[in-house]
């Protein structure tokens, strides 16, 4: 994935956030050079992976398979100093874009359509071998509990939410003809390094080709660029 693609995605999400009057914490607006001026009082940002995150899942086809997101708050299961048992993200799913099939071993999450087009999910249970099960899936959608066949599509309109327990396979996407979607996530503690089980062998973070300067630092770049 090129740096210019990442920069464009971040600027596009900033515009979407402005459209829906969703305001970001200060650190989401810092330029790369500003990070070098920040001291140890901001250690929680580095330790807990807060900030911008743009991924093509290593497939180099961002506009078809990709996601732009910000981790706004998070705990840390590896560091007792940060005892928050919860996390929050805000995400942008573009028209025609998909986040591929995966589950989490530990995290439970609510995904919320915060505005824009319809957000679609495809749901499966995981079997004992961590493959797709053909069993019916229990769905918790916007206060309603119901059961659907494996592989069913579930739609969230703006304001609706979906609860995803551990080991529930899910992919989500915005179909062609729909508007870009602003998506919230409220969950238990988030660990993108170790708690994602993708159905296919893909990467969680992109390999970046530096074709222009970074507009914002990604949360995975703090250590390498700050020294």
Task: Please work out how many helical segments DSSP would assign.
Answer: 4
Series of secondary-structure elements, N-terminal to C-terminal: HHHEEEEEEEEEEEEEH
Question: Which secondary-structure class do the elements indicate?
Answer: alpha+beta
Spatial strand order of the main sheet: 1-2-3-12-5-10-7-8
Strand element count: 13
The helix content, as a percent range, equals: 10-25%
> Any idea what the radius of gyration is?
17 Å
Q: What is the typical, i.e. mean, pLDDT?
A: 95
Coarse morphology = globular
Largest sheet: 8 strands, antiparallel
Instruction: Tell me the fraction of residues in β-strands, as a range.
Output: 25-35%
Report the uncertain regions: none
What is the terminal separation in angstroms? 23 Å
What does this structure look like?
By secondary structure, the chain is an alpha+beta fold. Helix content is 14%, strand content 33%. The chain has 4 helices and 13 strands. The protein has helices spanning 3-19, 32-35, 43-48, 222-226; strands spanning 51-55, 67-73, 86-93, 98-103, 109-116, 119-125, 137-141, 144-148, 153-156, 161-164, 168-173, 181-188, 197-198. The strands form 2 sheets. Strands 1-2-3-12-5-10-7-8 form an 8-stranded antiparallel β-sheet, with helices on one face. Strands 9-6-11-4-13 form a 5-stranded antiparallel β-sheet, with no helix packed on it. A hairpin with a 2-residue loop joins strand 7 (137-141) and strand 8. The radius of gyration is 17 Å and the shape is globular. The two termini are 23 Å apart. The model has no long low-confidence stretch (mean pLDDT 95).
